Amino acid sequence: MVTQRASDIAARVEDFVRTRIIPYEADPRRDHHGAPLDELVYEMRDLARAAGVLTPHILPDGTHLTQRETAVVLIASGLSPLGPLACNTMAPDEGNMYLIGHVANDDLKARFLTPLVEGRARSAFFMTEPAELGGAGSDPSMMITTCRRDGNHWVINGKKRFITGAQGASVGIVMAKSEEEDSKGGACMFLVDLPDPAIRIDDVPNTIDTSMPGSHADVTIDNLRVPADQLLGHAGDGFKYAQVRLSPARLSHCMRWLGGCIRAQEIAGDYANRRMGFGKPLIDHEGVGFMLAENMIDLKQAELMIDWCAGVLDTGSLGTVESSMAKVAVSEALMRIADRCVQVMGGTGVTDRTIVEQIFREVRAFRIYDGPTEVHKWSLAKKIKREWKHAHGG
Question: Could you tell me the CA-to-CA distances from 322 to 167, 178, 211, 303, 327 in Å, in that order?
């Protein structure tokens, strides 16, 4: 059951995105990767602030909506790829705000969380590492970036890859494996001010998705010195904190891109009802009408999966199993929906004359980030094996 406060917030967000933000989709202020420039981001955030829909999932007293409430709000923000940027519900900032809010002390919250909540800064989460170096990707335990104590500082060295939003970010969360004995080989997380000369952006490759400012950078960290009081939480607990962030963050991606696919279905449905072919509207041809009908089914199933997983997270569970199931089911369903919308619209569907083409590209990338489908299925299969062995005394 959606609460009245969540319904009210979501309605305001939806009206704002549809009336004020969708017109910005044609705005040319983009970098050479196609990502929105910060000038555009902060202009839209000023509008959101004035409309009372900036960071709508965090209440004025600093508390969060429940995950179930967050779902309806983030779905509404996702009706345009620019909506989450404007409303400050976009990755990686939304997940970083959640992590800082749950783990940081009051001083760190005041310094690093407040500007994010107020929409005055962007952030980056430095975890993934280059595959050719054997570094952490879907398996964080492979982390090769290191941190060690040096007096009242920690010194961090390593390389990171696909760091979303690093270019132009003001707040960073850097994850590194501790070399200290009392950390038992665990990881640490650090809050850092950006830019920092010890964090060098080596490359920002072009990628299939273009919704995130700063794109996905390759980074070298060379003797980064971080004051000890900027350690996030406790030394050695970084892998645990990663799960605090990643489980709800996976679900938030599902929420936002469900909103995008709702919009794609609206556009494709409108096209199919207006476009004539072989003497009747396309919608009256079973080959087209059935695709849109299948989309209706997938959209509802995705919505129900999100609501179920959100309910689990609201119990206080880390929800790693449930978020893996949701990530697989929803991302695959959304891919089918976006693909059908392109197919229904034919040649128009592969042009930039509508947002459908971008939504298709964004959802294709979503199937990979925050853990590709196959990794989550493998994790679920291991759970099945563990449960079988437990049941059979193995």
Answer: 32, 29, 27, 14, 9
Are the CB atoms for 126 and 219 separated by under 8 Å? yes
Distance CA 224, CA 163 (A): 17
State which residues of the chain have pLDDT below 50.
none
CATH 1.20.140.10, the chain: domain bounds: 239-391
Q: What is the pLDDT of residues 151-202, one digit of tens each?
A: 999 999 999 999 999 999 999 999 999 988 666 678 999 999 999 999 999 9
CATH number of 124-235: 2.40.110.10
- Residues of the chain within CATH 2.40.110.10 domain(s) are 124-235
- Per-residue HEC secondary structure of 62-98 comes to CCECCHHHHHHHHHHHCCCCCHHHHHCCCCCHHHHHH
Residue 372's pLDDT is 93
Residue 212: C-alpha distances to residues 185, 215, 254, 286, 312 (Å): 33, 6, 16, 37, 29
Q: Is the pTM of this model over 0.85?
A: yes
CB contact at 8 A, 83 and 21: yes
Which position has the token pair 């990338």? 365
Q: DSSP letters of 40-68?
A: HHHHHHHHHHHHT-SSTTB-TTSPBPPHH
Cα–Cα distance between 88 and 142 in angstroms, integer? 32
Task: Please say whether the beta carbons of 258 and 305 come within 8 A.
Answer: no
Tokens of 25: 């989709």
Residue 164's DSSP bridge partners are 216
Q: Which amino acid is at 184?
A: K
CATH number of 239-391: 1.20.140.10
The rounded distance, in Å, linking the Cα atoms of 332 and 326 is 10
Q: How far lies 211's CA from each of 7, 57, 83, 290, in Å?
A: 26, 20, 10, 30
